[in-house]
């Protein structure tokens, strides 16, 4: 084994975050093919997975601009979807958060220990941490209460897929929270 235990732990946790986000993105992509409503979530999941890949200081400066453009496009799409109602506001916040994190990593910095060197404005980072902590807590509460025996969803036969969608969203929210904590 090379390196310290801390760097090994950081690498393992980064790869677990990559796996979590990639699986969430794949599920959303599969769901988007069937119903057409989860393409934005699939892009977010795969983008988060890409952002979480530990490069070990070997980034050639491509990642921040590419991810900035990717999530900037996702933010514009979410802004367009806001015409239909405020329920897409979370997608806008998520996309803009990813743009912010991509810009804060700068060129030449990867995610993980190097990512901690490029700290953004503490007030904005703190506000985003509070937002995602609340989102995760609310999502976890909704997931716990979604499939209860007296739940109208379980009576209507929607418990399984609905709970899986909520679990996917919760996983991506936890991933976002984990990435923000390293800033």
Overview of the structural elements:
The protein has about 180 residues and is an all-alpha fold. The protein is about 75% helix and about 0% strand. It contains seven helices and no strands. The chain has helices spanning about 5-35, 40-50, 65-80, 90-105, 120-145, 150-155, 160-180. The model is unreliable at about 105-120 and about 155-160 (pLDDT under 50).
Compressed to H and E, one letter per element, the order equals HHHHHHH
Largest sheet: none
How helix-rich are the residues, as a percent range? over 70%
Radius of gyration, taken over Cα atoms and rounded to an integer in Å:
17 Å
**Outline, from the CA principal axes?**
globular
- How many E-type strands? 0
Unreliable stretches: 107-118, 153-159
End-to-end gap: 27 Å
Number of H- or I-type helical stretches: 7
Beta content: under 5%
């Amino acid at each position: 084994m090379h390196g310290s235990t801390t760097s090994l732990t950081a690498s393992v946790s980064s790869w677990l975050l990559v796996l979590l986000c990639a699986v969430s993105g794949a599920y959303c992509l599969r769901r988007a093919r069937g119903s057409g409503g989860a393409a934005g979530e699939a892009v977010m999941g795969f983008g988060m997975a890409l952002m979480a890949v530990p490069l070990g200081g070997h980034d050639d400066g491509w990642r921040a601009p590419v991810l900035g453009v990717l999530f900037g496009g996702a933010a514009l799409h979410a802004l367009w979807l806001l015409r239909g109602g405020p329920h897409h506001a979370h997608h806008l916040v998520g996309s803009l958060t990813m743009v912010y994190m991509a810009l804060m990593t700068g060129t030449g910095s990867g995610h993980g220990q190097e990512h901690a060197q490029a700290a953004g404005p503490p007030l904005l980072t703190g506000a985003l941490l509070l937002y995602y902590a609340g989102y995760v807590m609310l999502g976890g509460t909704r997931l716990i209460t979604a499939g209860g025996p007296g739940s109208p969803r379980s009576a209507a036969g929607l418990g399984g897929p609905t709970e899986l969608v909520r679990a996917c969203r919760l996983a991506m929210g936890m991933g976002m929270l984990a990435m923000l904590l390293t800033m």
